[in-house]
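Record pair follows.
FIRST:
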Amino acid sequence: MTVWGKVADLPVMTDTLSLAELKQTALDRARAGDWAGSADALRTILAQAPNDLGSLLLLGDVSHSSGDTQSASDAYRAALSLAAQAPNLPPPVQAGLQRAQARLAEYASDYAARLDGLIPPDQRSARFHQSLDILLGRQRIFLQEPRRYYFPGLPQIQFYDPGAFDWVPDLEAKTPVIQNELRAVLAEDQASFRPYIERTSGHLGAQDHHLLDNTDWSAFYLWKDGRKVEENCARCPATAAALEQVPLDFADGKCPSVLFSVLKPGAHIPPHNGMVNTRLICHLPLIVPGPAWLRVGSETHHWQEGKLVIFDDTIEHEAKNEADQTRIVLLFDVWRPELTEQERREIASLLGAIDNFSES
């Protein structure tokens, strides 16, 4: 409940008598329920003394009492912003600031409830639902932030719909045979799995990363940085053949990478961004023994064996295996579908040149 205090409780940051008189008028009219008259007097004060914290709080209270929540919100926000720069405020002012915060939270809740009621959640499209969460502050905006190369004009999509790619059903259907080849490799030679981040690599751009030279996140490569690992492909011929029908993003010395990616129990890959936004990362989950998840931007996906996941790794992402056994996916990268054939050739040439220049 609003308490209309004394003029001294709501300090005017000026010694001008006319402003003090105006403030007394504003208080008197507020006590009499003349919200419009009080608001007019307060706006006159604030036109001359815009940093008058007491008048801002009183204007918020008066506007709230009259049902003008927009004006109340504006006044309360201005008061809270000003108060952040003025420590050691007197108790009556602190009480007014607490009231302002509570009412702003109330307005936000009412606003969200009204907008949420326009279209029931189960009847919304996915993108509209996300836009509403962003509007109401329930989600951050996550955008592509590649660490090496940015290609303009590509859509900001966190997870792609696998159903939009004609090669996905055939690859998913081959999950059992790929799983068999993976299990054979695991049984024969686990030493072939190397730490995903090694001291000579640029992954995540952090040589002091906690996963550096750590087999908690490890890899068995079929293709590595654009070069085929012949010995490993020979050990997994069905897997290698299955990927021949996939639009891998070939760029000499750079792409693709195709690997069995291992996360041991409890392993956490912290938030990071990928190198280039001209590719998409794909996961075909092969061994998922329990809860394990991948967050891309504002969306979190839980891996399911045999169900492909396609995402933009230049949007901040992280992953964790919360199961008590190892999680393994077949990880590979493909061209973004929005790129033309000419653009793919240009990008491949450029990335190859960048790689050669870096080596020299």
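SECOND:
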Amino acid sequence: MVQLFADCLNEVLEHLEDDMVNLQSCLLVNHLWCNVSVRIFWRNFCDYKTSNLRTLITCLPNESKEILYNNGIIISTPTSKPPMFNYASFCKFLSFYQICNKFEFLLNNRFITSNDLGNNTLIVTQEIIKLFFNQISSLKKLQLGKYPNKIKFYPEAKVCLKNLTELQCNSNFSSEFFYQLSQVCHNISSLDILIEQFISKGLIDLTSAQRNLQSFYMTQFSKLTNLTSLIEVLPNTLIKLNLNENSYISIFFIARFINLQELNLCYNYMEDFIDFEKLQYAIFPNLQVLKIQRACPRFDLLIIFLENNGNKLKECYIGDYHEYSDNSLNLAIAKFCPNLRKLSVGFKNNELETMRIVFNGCRNLESMKIWCGNDFLSEKEALESIVKYSRENFYEIILYYVYDTQSELLSEELESFFINWTNRVSQKSLSLVIVNDFVKRLDGFYGFDGNDENMKIINKYIELGVIKRFKSTY
């Protein structure tokens, strides 16, 4: 019975994973609650506060404490007593970058001279990493960062990193570290790489050693000559591909990943889509999510791509820069993407009929992000059209105010929308999200939530249960 309660309690407290304040309160309830919540509280190093760092110093073996003492590094600890738990063993997400940063900040506040700060930070970082490697039985996520050629691969890591599934790293991290990692880790499913200066030979070895690589994320800011070497060892079994700022290479290589379920391209300019005229003819029979953020390729090319791959798409996000948009893309979405559930596009102020066609063609739509302002639909037009044309399974509206657009929605217009929404047949309560772009000025905010009357109406319909979720962000 006690075990059953502990299992149920664990399920409940898992929902507090992102709420460190309340989770910390759970530590103080009783012994059982403490035992359950402490494992969640210490799971992610990125959530650690100063008190956590001091507790880790308490957990260091005597050998490590002696190394710190001999280098004049004295960090006060919460207590002189042995720690209640083996806290380091609970960590599942470890970040070298965060270890360096957090302990550098801690040491800097101890008034260590700038000449000693960098070296002392490295010493502490190495000892803390050794502690984690020695105590963690199965690390799931690892984030590498700066100090790339000074962090060693410790023997203790062979057990700790054996079941690693997610890795975030810079391309110029120590080649020797990557090579050692490739001897231990063969089941990384998600690899996230920031391309910097050069690509370590060890990184290529590590990538080629993976048996179950499913997700690959790459951010590139400068042109590299050996990038092809990394791309060539990526397995054809990838199901998620995310390319960010990759404006220096042909993207036609994407065509060989025929098992892709999610493709995310994030570029600043149309010209960055090098060789998309070839990619438009590629076939991805399992593609379900297409995200083309910021700029997007020429519409005539993108339309052919959607004709070839739109049938199974469930989510489609097309560009944030739509000054050059025309009606053809939205009509193509209505024609070639009948199974969409989430859509993010722009409708110009003369495209109300096009919105009707999209809702009619995409009958499974549940969520839509709509641009408002400038040449796009007004809020009033967008909301009226959604009530009029959306189907009973539609539940989420995201209004995105482009550039420095100010909300012009009158309170009576908002009230009218909610009255009409309440009267329609719907399967779910409404989710309303407002995204304001660059709306903060010296005289304060003047976005949607800056209108007191509108917010009174929002709160009224939240209390009535019409709105399940409301969010306004900048």
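COMMENT: Residues 1-42 form one domain.
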